[in-house]
Design brief:
The chain is 75% helix and 0% strand. By secondary structure, the protein is mostly helical.
Length: 81
């Protein structure tokens, strides 16, 4: 829903939902769910207000942690940058 709203111009709504969605990223098990979060992050890049940029950062961090955990790097203390 946040992805549809941000594409429709409601960046504030998506910004507010970013923290909730980022927390959900820790529990994702499906490729479509991860793809949707990446699409949302990409869509948020179109907005230059502070809230949208902060939301993009939150989503980026969550997706990096998700990737590291799935790759087994989280257990080793590895860091992807």
């Amino acid at each position: 829903m946040a992805l549809v709203r941000v594409k429709g111009g409601a960046a504030e709504y998506a910004s507010e939902q970013a923290a909730v969605l980022a927390e959900d990223a820790r529990h994702l098990e499906s490729a479509p769910g991860v793809r949707d979060l990446r699409d949302l992050r990409r869509a948020m890049a179109r907005w230059h207000n502070p809230g949208a940029q902060q939301a993009r950062g939150v989503l980026t961090k969550a997706l990096r942690e998700y990737s590291a955990e799935k790759d087994g790097l989280g257990e080793l203390g590895g860091d992807r940058r």
